From TrEMBL:
<keyword id="KW-0949">S-adenosyl-L-methionine</keyword>
<dbReference type="Pfam" id="PF06325">
    <property type="entry name" value="PrmA"/>
</dbReference>
<dbReference type="GO" id="GO:0005737">
    <property type="term" value="C:cytoplasm"/>
</dbReference>
<dbReference type="InterPro" id="IPR029063">
    <property type="entry name" value="SAM-dependent_MTases_sf"/>
</dbReference>
<keyword id="KW-0689">Ribosomal protein</keyword>
<keyword id="KW-0489">Methyltransferase</keyword>
<feature type="binding site">
    <location>
        <position position="150"/>
    </location>
    <ligand>
        <name>S-adenosyl-L-methionine</name>
    </ligand>
</feature>
<dbReference type="InterPro" id="IPR050078">
    <property type="entry name" value="Ribosomal_L11_MeTrfase_PrmA"/>
</dbReference>
<keyword id="KW-0963">Cytoplasm</keyword>
<dbReference type="GO" id="GO:0008276">
    <property type="term" value="F:protein methyltransferase activity"/>
</dbReference>
<dbReference type="GO" id="GO:0032259">
    <property type="term" value="P:methylation"/>
</dbReference>
<dbReference type="GO" id="GO:0005840">
    <property type="term" value="C:ribosome"/>
</dbReference>
<keyword id="KW-0687">Ribonucleoprotein</keyword>
<comment type="similarity">
    <text>Belongs to the methyltransferase superfamily. PrmA family.</text>
</comment>
<dbReference type="InterPro" id="IPR004498">
    <property type="entry name" value="Ribosomal_PrmA_MeTrfase"/>
</dbReference>
<feature type="binding site">
    <location>
        <position position="172"/>
    </location>
    <ligand>
        <name>S-adenosyl-L-methionine</name>
    </ligand>
</feature>
<comment type="function">
    <text>Methylates ribosomal protein L11.</text>
</comment>
Length: 277
């Protein structure tokens, strides 16, 4: 890996969903890591992956809905690591589950998950991860088979195993997330999780008692049919990665696939839904 990164400091108004959209677009353009700041996001790309037209296809920069300005500079990788460590604060969900980095002190919680998120999404900071953790804490996982779709850092699969799940598949389309999930599974001494790189096309012939998918509205709308076909009788599907306003569309797609909405958690306009078949 190259020693030198280029760091872009983006200032974004309004902050959300601007930062979220910007991160998604930059990810596609080859940026590898993101540190959210009070005014926007700092995004890093390896210098050897960079060219001066790198932002040419980033649509949100031309949008009238957002005002986005940026500066950029060369960053030594060591500085980037420090920057990341400064910005990753541990979180505790419902006093029961801590998600922290190896360099944070241990918490006195029932579940203590150690994550080195590097470039993957899923430190528990995001509303959707937080709510999915809340759903998992309320659900009986003892002896269950589980799919964590869009696993990111693997945090949700790791918690599901800690809660008693005995067979788990964790899948992410992104190579960094795949590699990072394998690392985090080992770091937390999980024994029942298999990590795959890919998407819903890997699910043919598979079946699970519980499916967790924190991705985004459009991917979910596309893949709910496949998830429903992989869900065992009396199964549960947890979905997040979308807003309150998206519920009717998501619910309609679930209905088409014989899934009934049974519970909703909401946080800052983001939602996490539980469906039963
Ligand atoms: C919002 S993050 C969730 C990460 C983690 N599960 C959490 O809750 O913190 C969504 C993840 O889905 C992955 N992803 C996006 N599209 C996907 C697809 N079609 N199939 C599988 N994973 C996908 C992304 O790479 C990303 O890591």
């Amino acid at each position: 890996m190259s020693e030198i990164y280029i760091g872009y400091d983006f200032k974004v108004a309004p902050l959300q969903p601007g930062v979220e959209i910007l991160i998604a677009e930059l990810g596609y353009a080859g940026f590898e890591s993101f540190v959210e700041t009070e005014t926007g996001v700092t995004a890093y790309i390896q210098k050897e992956e960079w060219n001066e037209n790198i932002l040419e296809d980033i649509q949100i920069l031309g949008s009238d809905e957002f005002e986005i300005t940026y500066t950029y500079e060369d960053i030594e990788q060591t500085n980037w690591n420090e920057e990341w460590e400064k910005n990753f604060n541990p979180i505790v969900v419902d006093d029961v589950c801590a998600v922290r980095a190896p360099f944070h002190d241990k918490f006195d919680t029932k579940y203590d998950i150690i994550i080195e998120p590097k470039m993957s999404f899923g430190t528990g900071h995001h509303e959707t991860t937080h709510m999915m953790i809340q759903h998992i804490l309320k659900t009986d996982f003892e002896g269950k088979s589980v799919l964590d779709m869009g696993c990111g850092t693997g945090v949700l699969a790791i918690l599901a195993e800690m809660r008693g799940a005995t067979t788990l598949d964790a899948i992410d389309i992104d190579n960094w997330c795949y590699l990072n999930s394998i690392e985090n599974v080992e770091r937390n001494a999980c024994k029942n999780i298999t990590v795959y790189e890919g998407d819903a096309s890997l699910l043919e012939g598979k079946s699970y008692d519980i499916i967790i998918a924190n991705i985004n509205r459009n991917i979910l709308l596309n893949d709910i049919k496949t998830y429903a076909s992989c869900l065992n009788k009396n199964g549960a599907l947890f979905l997040s990665g979308f807003y309150n306003d998206d519920i009717p569309t998501i619910e309609a797609e679930c209905h088409k696939n014989m899934l009934k909405l049974s519970e909703k958690i909401e946080r800052n306009n983001w939602v996490a839904l539980k469906f039963l078949n």
